[in-house]
Write a structure and sequence with these properties.
The structure is a single chain. The protein is α/β, with parallel strands linked by helices and about 290 residues long. The protein is built from nine helices and 13 strands. Helix 1 crosses helix 7 and helix 7 runs antiparallel to helix 8.
């Protein structure tokens, strides 16, 4: 099967700092690095490196061919990435000595994806494929509706959190992935507990504390692998990509979660975003 990912594509500029700057503080960075990023691009790379067939749906500026080259080189199908007369999305990321980060995001072309691009892509999809979306692009609700009508399963990573987007997407979602903060925000916005949502499978990630798998039958907790993190940027996206890749090839939820946790644990030991997402051989060989 295939995964059709309506996802953001960003240029990431990452600064290493002694600590996350406070309001009004000027802080000298000790290092600067430039990467391909965006939650959507990260997830597509993770999916491809986990062995999934992934088709990326998105948009970039007209002078960002290097991005398409990087995605293609990772094994992502890029035929449905539109080139638009807008700036490519970008993120300014600061990472402190403990590996925590703060991010300022400019949507750029991610906010201008034409509906025709989505329609053209999904016209090639097959019943049983997965459709994946996050909250860094436009057209999530319209695209998910079309995907459901075509018989696709819908996965939704509710980040960055938007109450309006979540309310629109949850009723169409088969697999919901969000972190603990986003889960609390969703509960407040919906007036429902996570277990009461009309979603078959919900995964709540909790960083170093692992994750919860929530269904109508109850909640199962999975402990995280213990590692020394150097950069948490992209770890959640890596987890989501590996989780969905596992499910797409028929793994059980338990197997998919365990693989995704191993991939995320390895990811936080590396500096960078999509460029350093591990491949399946590295993940399977990883022994923290």
């Amino acid at each position: 099967m295939a995964v059709w990912n309506l996802g953001s594509i960003n240029e990431d500029i990452v600064y290493s700092v002694p600590h996350i700057p406070a309001a009004g503080e000027t802080l000298a960075a000790t290092q600067m690095r430039h990467y391909l990023g965006g939650k959507g691009a990260n997830m597509s790379v993770a999916l491809a490196r986990a062995g999934a067939e992934v088709r990326h749906i998105g948009a970039i500026g007209q002078s960002s061919d290097w991005i398409v080259d990087r995605l293609s080189g990772a094994g992502v199908d890029t035929r449905h990435i539109a080139r638009l007369p807008f700036a490519t999305g970008h993120a300014i990321i600061v990472v402190d000595d403990a590996g925590e980060n703060a991010i300022t995001l400019f949507p750029g072309a991610n906010a201008e994806i034409p509906v025709e691009t989505v329609q053209g892509a999904l016209s090639e999809a097959k019943t049983g494929d997965w459709f994946l979306a996050q909250n860094e692009t436009v057209l999530q609700e319209e695209s998910a509706t079309l995907a459901k009508d075509l018989g696709l399963r819908v996965a939704y990573a509710a980040a960055p959190f938007s109450a309006g987007a979540a309310r629109a997407m949850v009723p169409m979602t088969d697999l919901l992935v969000l972190n603990a903060v986003e889960a609390a925000q969703l509960e407040e916005a919906s007036g429902q507990g996570i277990a009461d949502l009309p979603v078959a499978d919900v995964i709540v990630t909790r960083g170093a504390e692992g994750c919860d798998w929530v269904t109508a039958e109850g909640t199962r907790h999975f402990e995280a692998l213990k590692v020394e993190p150097v950069d948490t940027t992209g770890a959640g996206d890596t987890f989501t990509g590996y989780l969905l890749a596992g499910l797409d090839r028929g793994a059980s939820m338990e197997e998919a979660i365990e693989l995704a946790q191993r991939a995320a644990a390895l990811m936080v030991t590396r500096h960078g975003t999509s460029d350093v997402i591990p491949d399946i051989a590295e993940v399977q060989a990883f022994r923290p």
